[in-house]
Amino acid sequence: MPVLEAAQNYLHLLVVAIAILLIGFSAGLLAKKILQKVLREVEFNKIMALAGINYNLERWLSSLAAYVIYVITVILFLDYLNIRRVALYSFIGAVIILIVLSLLVTLKDVIPNLQGWQKIRRWKTGRRVAVQNMAGKIERIGYLQTRIKTPRGDILYVPNALFRVGDRINRD
Fold first, then answer.
1. Domain that includes residue 7, residue range
2. Secondary structure class of 139 (helix, strand, coil)
């Protein structure tokens, strides 16, 4: 009989936990639809457009409210099952790994451009340069890119990494 009692307790625990998820996710969807309808009714996007913000804030804010409710629901679900700490540590670890990977991918492009900037930072504006199949006068040298005006009047934004490579850089 103890096995049957333990199975009943476990089944009760799962049913209540699943009910928490269903109620929470339903509340999130309902909150999203109600908030979006209220914001649309007061013409929130038009008000924000007058302030210079041309983004669909009605949809964004209602989705944000739904996500907050979803997160709270998942926390309550995990807390009810007594596995919140493990899940929280796993989630924090995953977020840290994502941040580190994002930084690595970002730096993959930034570092070569900064090295190129180190090479060309003393060049004067108005100097003629030709790198790869682009040529013109330097208008502005930035940390990541250089603005070059071609003889035809076109403006080119050249990544500074191209100046770092060691290709032929012709200059006056």
1. 2-82
2. strand
